[in-house]
């Protein structure tokens, strides 16, 4: 198996419908390019409506697992445990991939012929907020790792060799103690271990901003990522 595509759901309800369509479209396009893909669905403490939205996952080839972590990072980690693909990538059940994401990210990683972490070229935010930004290349001369002390360069919908996710799992969010942003923390850890982060040309991720999401809760709780070599303030 070349790619394990992992879709994680929680309480998205009807919003997961477009995400399922996007997930399946990218898988079908990649398969049309001769790439093998296994669809994995992780429903973590799903609402009843979210569970209902995935009731026919088996009919389109998805393997479904239900968990009780209550945490997006741990749900992704469980998907990695189930994965058999050479590469792993993620989609949240209220977000969207461009149709070419799987095929283009796979092509970049194969072309690099080394371990790299791929991200979409463009991130588009929609819903309660509207914004967009380009994902940066950590090997570009203008890249500044110091920015990671105040902001996150890349989101969680990455694409990378499975062993990277196995060796460096996502941290459980601990909002009550002031720590969170598991994707930001994971990016710091992987970069500090020497894994380049690379944008994939002509790809887009569309990220929904809504009340009650993990990112919204982390922002409202004013948490910070756990200390790492990349995020460590000293005096």
Q: What does this molecule look like?
A:
Residues 24-120 form the Glycosyltransferase 2-like domain. It comes from Dyella jiangningensis. InterPro entries: Glyco_trans_2-like, Nucleotide-diphossugar_trans. This is Glycosyltransferase 2-like domain-containing protein. It is built from 7 helices and 9 strands. The protein is α/β, with parallel strands linked by helices and 235 residues long. The protein has a single domain (3-221), classed as Alpha-Beta Complex (Spore Coat Polysaccharide Biosynthesis Protein SpsA, Chain A). The strands form 2 sheets. The protein has a 5-stranded mixed β-sheet, sandwiched between helices. A 4-stranded mixed β-sheet has the order 5-9-6-7. A hairpin with a 3-residue loop joins strand 6 (117-127) and strand 7 (131-134). Helix 1 (16-32) crosses helix 4 (101-112). The longest helix has 17 residues, at 16-32.
Estimate percent helicity: 25-40%
Radius of gyration computed on alpha carbons: 17 Å
Terminal Cα separation, in Å?
A: 49 Å
The arrangement of helices and strands along the chain is EHEHEHEEHEEEHHEH
Strand content: 25-35%
Can you tell me the residue ranges where pLDDT is under 50 for at least 5 consecutive residues?
A: 216-220
- Helix and strand content put the structural class at alpha/beta
